Amino acid sequence: MVSDPRTEASRRRTFAIISHPDAGKTTLTEKFLLYGGALGKEAGSVKAREGRRSATSDWMDLEQQRGISITSTVLQFTYGDCVINLLDTPGHRDFSEDTYRVLAAADAAVMVLDAAKGIEPQTLKLFEVCREREIPFLTFINKWDRPGKAPLELLDEIEETLVVEPTPLTWPVGIPGDFRGVIHRGTGVYTRFERTARGSTIAPEEEVDAERAAIDDGEWWSAAVEEVDLLDGVGRVVDPKTFLAGESTPVFFGSALTNFGVRFLLDGVVDLVPSPAPRQLADGSRRALDAPFSGLVFKVQAGMDKAHRDRIAFVRVCSGRFERGITAIAERSGRQFSTKYAQTMFGQDRDTADEAYPGDVLGLVNANDLRVGDAVYVGEPASFPPLPAFAPEHFMRARVTDTSKFKQFRKGVAQLDEEGAIQVLRDEDLGDQAPVLAAVGPMQFEVATYRLENEFGAPVELSATPYTIARRTDDQSAAKLNAMQGVSVLSRADGTLLALFESKYWMDRVLRDHPELTLERMIAEGGLN
Ligand code: G4P
C-alpha cells in the first residue's frame, strides 16, 4: 500500500548526535538501536561493525589509528510508531564543515556531554555549528554511573557557556557513581533502573513511590526532590517554543553504558524533535511535503567500499514519496538519472531502498553529477538555499612525489574537492601541478594525503604556504589584489575566487587602503575557533 508522504513525515524523527570524542556517542547510538529493537536482543554489534570497517574501507583505517570518527553514517530504525533517522557527525572539530552539512539534513541534534567533563572544547565548536544552523537540540548528560560534576553545576555550565537555558526533563537520583534512577519532571514518576551485565540488554525499570524511595534511597531521594522543587520554583520546565528556537535545551541524565535513562531520551526525541516540515527553497517558498519527490544532497563520499570504489551521494528526502527506479533530475546538470541503485545505509552496511519519505536518507550510488548542496527532484524543479562554505584557515601546497602518478593525483584532488573533503585552490601559474589545499582544520590534510596515497595511488608531499586567512573576492578586485605584495588570488573549481593573505594585519591594511575592493567574509571564521 502506498502511504501519504504527509502521514509518513509525521512519523519521522531525523536528528544528529554531536559530542566531543569519548563522551559516549557510539555507545549511545548502539543503545538507541538496542531500544529500537534493531540489534536483536543484545548490544555490541555497532562495535562489531566497527571491526569490519577496516575490511570494507581502507582510508577508514586512519580513523582507527587516530581513534576519531571522520566519516559519518546514517542509521534508521523504528521505535514505537516512529521511524527514527539518526545521522552521525564527525567527532572532530576539524571537520565542522561536514558537521554543518549533516545538520542541514537533520531536524534537531542531541548533544552528548560527559558528566565528569561538562562542555569540552569540541562540544563547544560543534554546538556553535548547531547555532549557526539554528537547529534545536536536546542534551544528554552521560556517564552518570561514575563520579562526575553535580547536576546543578552542569546546568550552570550549559547556561553560561552556551547561553542557552537548560530545562531538565529527567533528574537524577543518587550521586554520580551511585546512580539509582531518574525523576521524570513531566509525569513526576521516579523510575529506578537495574544494571544488566555490560549493559547489553535493556535495563529493567521499576516505578518507585515516594514512600519507598525515601526508605531505599534516603538522603539522595530527598536531595533530588529538593532540587526538582528548586527547578520548578524558578520555572525551569521544558518549553517547546524556546526549544524550537534554540533558546532552551531539554536535558536528560543517564548512562549509555548501563542503559540508565536511555529510554527517556529516546521518548524525548519522539515527543520533542519536530517531524519533517515543508522545506524552504532558494526562492524563499516552501515545497509541500506531498509535492513530488525532492531531496537535498548533504554529503558525497567515495571509497566507502574498497571492493567497488563507488561514490555515494547522501540525500535527505524533503518532499514526496521516493520509489526506487524512478527517474529523477539532478539540479546542477539538469540531467535525468536512474535511481535503480538507491540504498539505505545502516552504518557501513547497505540495503536496497525501495521507498523513502520526507526525513529519510538515501544513498544514491554513482550519481556522479551530484554535489553537496544540490537538489534532486521529480516534476517541478527544486533548488535549495546554498550551504555556506566555511572559511579555510590552513593552507598547504600539494605536489605528487612520483610524477608518473600525476593523472591519479589530478583525479584524486578533483574527487576530494567535489566531496568537499578539502577545498582545492588553483593559481594560473602552477595550474593542476601544485594546487593549494585549504582546510578548516589541519586534520583534513591528514585525511586528504592518506586518501590520495591509499585510494588513488598518488603519494603527495605537502609544503607550507605563507597564507593564514582567506576572503571571497571577484574578478575586478582580483586583478588589483594580484598586483599587491603578500596577497594571492586563487580559484576554486566552481569559479569562486579566494584572496589569501599572509596575515590578518596585512589584510586589514589592504582593506583600509582600498575600501573599493570586494573581500567578503565566509561563515565560521574566527568565532568558531
Ligand atoms: P564516542 O563515540 O563519543 O567517542 O565515545 P564512545 O561511545 O566510544 O565511548 C567512549 C568511552 O566511554 C568508551 O570506553 C565507553 O565504553 C565509555 N562510555 C560510554 N558511555 C559510558 C557511560 O555511560 N558510562 C561509563 N562509565 N562509560 C561510558 P572505552 O574504554 O574507550 O571503550 P570500551 O573498551 O569500553 O569499548
Which structural class is indicated by helix and strand composition?
alpha+beta
Q: Determine the N-to-C terminus distance.
A: 50 Å
The side-by-side strand order for the widest beta sheet comes to 3-4-1-5-6-12-7
Q: Which hetero compounds are present in the coordinates?
A: guanosine-5',3'-tetraphosphate
Question: What percent of the residues sit in helical stretches (DSSP H or I)?
Answer: 25-40%
Classified in CATH, the superfamily of the largest domain is P-loop containing nucleotide triphosphate hydrolases
Q: What average pLDDT do the residues reach?
A: 86
Number of helices: 14
Q: How would you characterize the largest beta sheet?
A: 7 strands, mixed
**How many distinct domains?**
3
CATH architecture descriptor text of the largest domain:
3-Layer(aba) Sandwich
What's the CATH class of the largest domain, please? Answer: Alpha Beta
What is the tally of beta strands? Answer: 31
Coarse shape: globular
Query: Over the alpha carbons, how many angstroms does the gyration radius reach?
Result: 24 Å
Which spans of ≥5 residues are poorly predicted at pLDDT below 50?
41-59, 525-529
| CATH fold-level name of the largest domain | Rossmann fold
User: Roughly what fraction of the amino acids lie in strands?
Assistant: 25-35%
